[in-house]
Design goal:
With 130 residues, this protein is mainly β. It has helices spanning 21-26, 107-118; strands spanning 13-16, 28-37, 43-46, 52-59, 61-66, 69-74, 78-82, 87-91, 96-104, 121-122. It has a six-stranded antiparallel β-sheet. The protein has a four-stranded antiparallel β-sheet with strand order 3-8-5-6, with no helix packed on it. The longest helix is centred in the last third of the chain and has 12 residues, at 107-118.
């Protein structure tokens, strides 16, 4: 499937998922995933979006505002956002990233524990979670 968001190049792909009721009750499950190649026109600004987001930056730079902080993610970095909170991200030309929106089980608690310990931007030189 191709994204209709502005700034997503045609070679990009994304896939929606609809989990079973059992998965919703017991498991972690993806809601969307994809591999995006972006121009500087790609951005997302939301007050809230139900799933969480994990993204791995393969190339380029991604400007992100979250939790009152601004950071630039670069190749090798990982973003982990609870999208129920306000967030804004904006690509620089040449950005390539893979992502997964997910929910389920204790996903929010797990996300909070990781981000409390390591932050929501996990740098490539420091991305070994312990």
């Amino acid at each position: 499937m191709q994204s209709v968001d502005p700034g997503i190049r045609s070679e990009s792909v994304c896939f929606p998922f609809t989990p079973s009721q059992t998965a919703r009750e017991l498991l972690f499950y993806p809601t969307w995933c994809g591999h995006y190649y972006c121009t500087a026109n790609y951005f997302m600004k939301r007050d809230s979006y139900p799933p969480l987001l994990i993204a791995y930056i393969r190339k380029g730079r991604f400007r992100v505002e979250y939790h009152g902080e601004f950071h630039v993610a670069e190749a090798g970095d990982v973003l982990l956002l609870d999208c129920i909170e306000p967030h804004y991200y904006h690509a620089e030309d040449g950005l390539e990233f893979v992502y997964m929106h997910f929910e389920g089980s204790n996903a929010r608690e797990l996300c909070r524990r990781i981000t409390d310990r390591h932050g929501w931007l996990i740098r490539r030189d420091n991305n070994m979670l312990i």
